[in-house]
Amino acid sequence: MSPRDPEILTFGCRLNLFESEVMRAHVRAAGVAEDLVIVNSCAVTAEAERQVRQAIRSARRRNPAATIVVTGCAAQIAPERFAAMPEVDRVVGNAEKLRAETWGEQPSERVRVGDITSVRETAGHLVACFDAHTRAFLQVQNGCDHRCTFCVIPYGRGPSRSVPAEEVIAQVEALVADGVKEVVLTGVDVTAYGGDLPGQPALGRLAGEVLSRVPELPRLRLSSLDPVEIDDEIWRLLAEEPRLMPHLHLSLQAGDDAILKRMKRRHLRADAIACAARARRLRPEIALGADLIAGFPTETEAMFGRTLDLVEECGLVHLHVFPYSERPGTPAARMPPVPVPERRERARRLREAGARAHRGFLAAKIGRSQEVLLESKGFGRTPDFALVQVRQPAPAGTIVPAMPFGLESDHLLA
Predict the structure, then answer these.
(1) 326: exposed, middle or buried (Cβ count in 10 Å: 0-12, 13-18, 19+)
(2) Range 319-348 average pLDDT
(3) How open is the CA angle 88-92-98, to the nearest 5 degrees?
(4) Which CATH number do you get for residue 208?
């Protein structure tokens, strides 16, 4: 039999998207001939896990002869739950899924899930390209040492660990040589980068070294940041280095101090507002995004209102909104809950506020020339991550000046 490309169903964060491409490369390199479906699961909410189980059943109905392998955070945390599903052939842990040998050998056991809390290395060779090889996500950090009361991800990802700078720079050089125009430094808790390395170099130092030692890289972008862990070097680069993109996505979660404390977050409302103000002062054209949770336990309407107000007060234009979902075993799951319909309604209101802000952000660009990195089918991104459809497209991977003349749904026409 000739090798086959695996079908990969990815749930959750961008890091999972990245790791799915790593697995795809391993399967291709191993020359796997079987009909393979890999389900890369997410455990961030109970709803995410429900969707994973639904996708597994659907994959089996669609392809009765396939080998179905389940991996990702949900599989890491509760492997027995997925192993009990008759549709599942193998369960693979988060560390094991990134090892080439996992995909190039005949498995001797149905479940291969190690103790993620004992993992101390992050494989520095991991890289994945998207969007016609114009943008690449580079994993520089994995795991998390914090214990937010709503989150099970540390139990799925293990402790924080970082890729040494020399390995990161070598990977960026290889990506640029392959034609990549934008690199995104990503991780589970990327602002924790370097805490486990000699000398404890912070994320800003890593970003600065990438920019100075790979001058051919046109664009560097950072993934989700904790507002109180943005180091001084990141702020300096934001002010002085145009190749660091004017776009920050902040892990805020809420805008009420009591809720933030019950979440066991590391910042308060004032910290979020100060972070946004500092970013805009240093880089006036910056666009800010955020993760926000609606309906966290004990959240009153007044508390929710402070989160809703944060969209305008921080000038947030790229929102990721989640209605709170209980995760068994977490402290938040034992707190007095907000009724589910109320959570959904609050999430809807947050999304509406985010959509209005995003539309205003796009409208302000009409008639003002934008530098767009084209990806595919005439679409591309500005430095501040606005999506643009160019009517006279150049080849993917080209950075072109584009003049927006109108809006359509969630993107500009140019």
Answers:
(1) middle
(2) 94
(3) 135
(4) 3.30.750.210
- Count of residues making up the chain: 414
Task: Tell me how crowded residue 408 is: count the other CB atoms within 10 A of its CB.
Answer: 9
Count of other CB atoms within 10 angstroms of residue 280 = 16
Prediction pTM value: 0.84
Does residue 360 contact residue 330 with C-beta atoms inside 8 Å? no
What would you report as the CA-atom Rg of the chain, rounded to the nearest whole angstrom? 21
* Phi-psi category of residue 57: left, alpha or beta, with phi > 0 → left and psi -120 to 50 → alpha: alpha
Residue 323 pLDDT > 90:
yes
Q: Do 44 and 320 form a contact (C-beta atoms < 8 A)?
A: no
pLDDT at 389 over 80: yes
Unique residue bearing structure tokens 């002010």: 239
Whole-number pLDDT of residue 1: 47
Residues 294 and 333 in one domain: yes
Cβ(322)–Cβ(349) below 8 Å = no
Distance CA 180, CA 118 (A): 34
Q: Do residues 253 and 234 share a domain? A: no
Residue 2 within any structural domain of the chain: no
Which token pair is 17? 């998207």
**Res 131: pLDDT:** 52
pLDDT value for 110: 81
Q: Which of 377, 374, 227, 367 is nearest to 292 (CA)?
A: 227
Identify the DSSP state of 123.
Answer: -
Q: What is the pLDDT of residues 87-124, one digit of tens each?
A: 999 999 888 888 888 887 777 678 878 766 555 555 44
Calculate the average pLDDT of the chain: 90
Instruction: Taking each helix axis as running N to C, give the angle between helix 203-213 and helix 165-177, from 0 to 180 degrees, rounded to the nearest 10.
Output: 40
- What is the CATH classification number for the domain harbouring 325? 3.30.750.200
CA atoms within 13 A on the CB side of 288: 28
Residues 378 and 359 in one domain: no
pLDDT at site 306:
98
pLDDT at position 29 is 85
Residue 220 lies in a domain: yes
Q: Do residues 230 and 165 both lie within one domain?
A: yes
Domain of 397 in residue numbering reads as 370-413
Comparing C-alpha atoms, which of 158, 60, 85, 65 is closest to residue 115? 158
